């Protein structure tokens, strides 16, 4: 073919035509090269933008997980800070003389230090006395506290997080100490005390490393100017203070920032995010080459396209000029040996080779288009999740139209569905139930409005309804949303034989407010803890503006007494009463959950007082498991089945191991002669040991002082007599060796939260109800 084209053009009679063809061939290449370059930079720019957005989402997850860890530790510390033992110690005028309260305080601080993860040390500080209680060192002077902690306490804060750099050369930028200070108020005129908790800063970087994000490095900058650095990756070879970009980030007040900097001779992507919770600044660094490695394929493809264009130009000029023909042949050999596209047969001429490469390029483009179409459902689902969970910006409107999100009407409502009681099912069964509920939801929505249904990353099913009413009222929209939710709940229960709980957010105008509606729907789901599961919950009906927190201390004390006496039957009854008391007096799901957290903490403290080795009774974190349960019935069932039986079993095992001890002889005598006058000298004489030794040995073996145990035992017998006999209150008081009935009534009410008469009346009402319930069950 080259020879046929060459013959008319090689004659000397047409030199002008040959020059025109050469120039035209070269000029035709220019716009194609420009379009190729523009296409490459446009594609790479969008790709990099997607990478940056993914990094921003990763940073947000890091910040949220660390903030959640701090908030959880703060809540747990709060539960212990409200313990009456700490308030009583802070109120003492001479704390050094009250050994009993001091011992209880040290035991409580020690349980906090042992039970709460990532705590290095716990202190109780009384600035008015210049004293500090430490579970390891006892009662010491305030000099054990760092100066910056004492300065913070002098400002009388209700709570504050402190951080301080400790001088050390072991790791880059040294070690740090993170401290949480919580004020403990007193009922009298005594100045407040402070619970001080020191945390291990490596816990924050453990959150980061557990995410397995590859060759990244995390740096945390606190408002006080201290820097926490995880030196495991060592991407930065020099101290952080030597890098100008890091100084810029430390001085910045921006909410978030993304930049690319030359660091130690290599480009580095820097992601910066500031926490709304405590003002900490999170900075992650990742080599730019790790982010753009996928662009190498795009660059190689673009390079091949440019080579093909140059090949076309050189071939055309080579056809028109013999002196360029040899150079053209060399270039063709280079292209034929270049990898990345299907290799053309060596027997083809130059134009056939070029056509072959263009065909290969077209084939690759078709494959890429098919891959995009296959990924469209996943891309659409990710966009919907971002729409429901991320701050809205104007570009989302265009993307919503691209992904076929309903935008025909103005008002939107979000529903969240949670499948109840799927725990224990296999993952395959759970996925099948979710798939079935999604299909049911789509069918129900199609009868009423435009909408879409997706499964969120947190396991909930989210429904976005675009109401089709032309001039809707918010009341009508709420009614329609309730109708859709109730149909979904009813059909799922009848067809799948499972229950679902549905939370409904308020209706808002515009896509920009769907995130708010989604948050309200999630908030409504949390009220399963109060209202129960298998229901439709609307945030506007269940979220109270104000709520009173009336924690049932009396039931807690009864439960602790029964725990120390290893009475599991009574514990089960008290757990039901505890849950019922919460339902009757408070409406906030947070108050309900915090009340159960406090009950568990008090029970663990009581168990620890009996046996310091009892922290190994449970093989998982009770607080984490509690947060997974979404109704009070599930929590009570879990407490009865998994939490308290191991505690009672541990106490029984410990009691059985004392069968041959001298203290067990005294305990057996007390249980047989509880209705006689009992005293420590009498029992010490009976087992032939000194009184002081008996008191110490009794506390070590039983976990309670002799007087506490005797009162708890007699109150347990008093409840039995009130439930099973018609004895007068005065007769029961006399039988239990109280000198008058008023003293007996006072002690009984202190331990049970009600008078003996009220207890007998309540038990008499509950007994017929329990029999009726048993008859229904049969």
UniProtKB/TrEMBL annotation:
Superkingdom in the source lineage = Bacteria
The record ties this protein, via PROSITE patterns, to: HTH_ARAC_FAMILY_1 (PS00041), HTH_ARAC_FAMILY_2 (PS01124)
Has keyword Transmembrane?
A: yes
Q: Which CDD domains match?
A: PDC2_HK_sensor
Name the UniProt key words of this record, in alphabetical order: DNA-binding, Membrane, Transcription, Transcription regulation, Transmembrane, Transmembrane helix
Where is region (Disordered) located?
759-778
**What sections of the protein cross the membrane?**
20-43, 301-320
Instruction: Name the InterPro entries for this protein.
Output: CdaR_GGDEF, Homeodomain-like_sf, HTH_AraC, HTH_AraC-typ_CS, Tscrpt_reg_AraC-type_HTH
- Gene3D superfamilies this protein is in? Homeodomain-like
Show the SUPFAM superfamilies listed in the entry. Answer: Homeodomain-like
Q: Name one GO molecular function term.
A: DNA-binding transcription factor activity
- Claim: Transcription is one of the keywords in the record: yes
Domain HTH araC/xylS-type residue range list: 664-762
Pfam families hit by this protein: GGDEF_2, HTH_18
Q: What is this protein called?
A: AraC family transcriptional regulator
Q: Which organism is it from?
A: Paenibacillus mucilaginosus 3016
């Amino acid at each position: 073919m080259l020879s046929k084209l060459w013959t008319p053009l090689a004659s000397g009679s047409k030199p002008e035509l040959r020059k025109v063809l050469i120039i035209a061939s070269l000029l035709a290449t220019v716009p194609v090269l420009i379009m190729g370059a523009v296409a490459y930079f446009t594609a790479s720019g969008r790709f990099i933008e997607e990478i940056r957005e993914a990094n921003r989402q990763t940073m947000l997850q890091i910040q949220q997980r660390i903030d959640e860890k701090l908030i959880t530790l703060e809540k747990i510390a709060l539960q212990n800070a409200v313990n009456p033992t700490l308030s009583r110690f802070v109120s003492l005028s001479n704390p050094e003389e009250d050994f009993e309260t001091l011992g209880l305080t040290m035991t409580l601080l020690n349980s906090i230090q042992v039970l709460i993860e990532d705590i290095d040390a716990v202190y109780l500080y009384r600035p008015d006395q210049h004293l500090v209680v430490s579970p390891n060192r006892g009662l010491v002077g305030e000099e054990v506290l760092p100066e910056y902690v004492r300065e913070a306490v002098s400002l009388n804060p209700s709570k504050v997080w402190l951080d301080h750099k400790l001088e050390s050369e072991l790791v880059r930028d040294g070690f740090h100490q993170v401290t949480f200070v919580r004020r403990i108020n007193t009922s009298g005129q005594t100045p407040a005390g402070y619970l001080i908790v020191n945390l291990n800063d490596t816990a924050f970087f453990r959150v980061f490393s557990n995410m397995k994000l590859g060759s990244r490095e995390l740096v945390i900058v606190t408002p006080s100017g201290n820097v926490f650095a995880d030196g495991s990756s060592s991407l930065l070879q020099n101290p952080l203070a030597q890098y100008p970009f890091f100084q810029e980030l430390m001085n910045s007040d921006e909410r978030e920032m993304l930049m690319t900097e030359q660091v130690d001779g290599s480009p580095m992507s820097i992601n910066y995010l500031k926490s709304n919770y405590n003002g900490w600044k999170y900075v992650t660094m990742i080599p730019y080459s790790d982010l753009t490695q996928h662009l190498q394929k795009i660059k190689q493809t673009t390079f091949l396209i440019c080579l093909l264009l140059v090949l076309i130009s050189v071939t055309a000029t080579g056809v028109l000029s013999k002196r360029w023909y040899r150079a053209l042949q060399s270039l063709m050999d280079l292209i034929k040996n270049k990898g990345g596209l299907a290799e053309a047969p060596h027997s083809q001429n130059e134009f056939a080779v070029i056509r072959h490469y263009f065909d290969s390029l077209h084939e690759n483009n078709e494959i890429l288009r098919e891959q995009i179409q296959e990924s469209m459902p996943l891309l659409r689902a990710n966009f919907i999740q971002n729409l429901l969970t991320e701050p809205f910006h104007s570009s989302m409107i265009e993307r919503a139209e691209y992904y076929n999100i309903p935008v025909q009407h103005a008002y939107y409502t979000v529903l969240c569905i949670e499948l109840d009681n799927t725990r224990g099912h296999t993952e395959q069964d759970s996925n099948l139930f979710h798939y079935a509920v999604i299909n049911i939801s789509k069918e129900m929505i199609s009868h009423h409005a435009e909408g879409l249904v997706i499964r969120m990353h947190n396991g909930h099913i989210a429904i976005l309804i675009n109401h089709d009413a032309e001039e809707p009222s918010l009341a009508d929209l709420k009614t329609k949303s309730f109708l859709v939710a109730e149909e979904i709940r009813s059909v799922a229960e009848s067809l799948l034989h499972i229950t679902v709980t549905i939370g409904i957010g308020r209706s808002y105008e515009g896509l920009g407010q769907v995130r708010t509606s989604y948050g309200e729907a999630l908030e409504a789901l949390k009220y399963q803890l109060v209202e129960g599961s298998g229901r439709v919950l609307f945030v506007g009906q269940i979220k109270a503006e104000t709520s009173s927190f009336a924690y049932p201390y009396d039931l807690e004390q009864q439960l602790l007494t029964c725990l120390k006496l290893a009475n599991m039957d009574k514990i089960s009854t008290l757990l039901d009463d505890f849950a019922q008391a919460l339902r009757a007096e408070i409406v906030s799901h947070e108050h309900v959950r915090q009340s159960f957290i406090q009950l568990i903490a008090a029970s663990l403290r009581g168990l620890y007082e009996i046996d310091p080795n009892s922290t190994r009774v449970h093989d998982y974190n009770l607080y984490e498991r509690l947060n997974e349960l979404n109704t009070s019935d599930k929590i009570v069932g879990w407490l009865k089945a998994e939490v308290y039986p191991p505690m009672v079993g541990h106490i029984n095992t410990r009691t059985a191991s004392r069968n041959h001890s001298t203290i067990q002889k005294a305990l057996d005598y007390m249980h047989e002669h509880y209705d006689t006058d009992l005293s420590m000298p009498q029992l010490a004489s009976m087992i032939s040991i000194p009184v002081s030794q008996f008191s110490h040995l009794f506390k070590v073996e039983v976990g309670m002082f002799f007087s506490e145990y005797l009162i708890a035992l007699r109150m347990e017998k008093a409840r039995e007599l009130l439930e099973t006999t018609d004895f007068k209150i005065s007769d029961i008081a006399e039988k239990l060796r109280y000198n008058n009935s008023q003293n007996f009534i006072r002690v009984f009410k202190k331990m049970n939260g009600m008078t003996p008469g009220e207890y007998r009346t309540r038990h008499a009402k509950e007994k017929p109800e329990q029999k009726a319930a048993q008859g229904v069950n049969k």
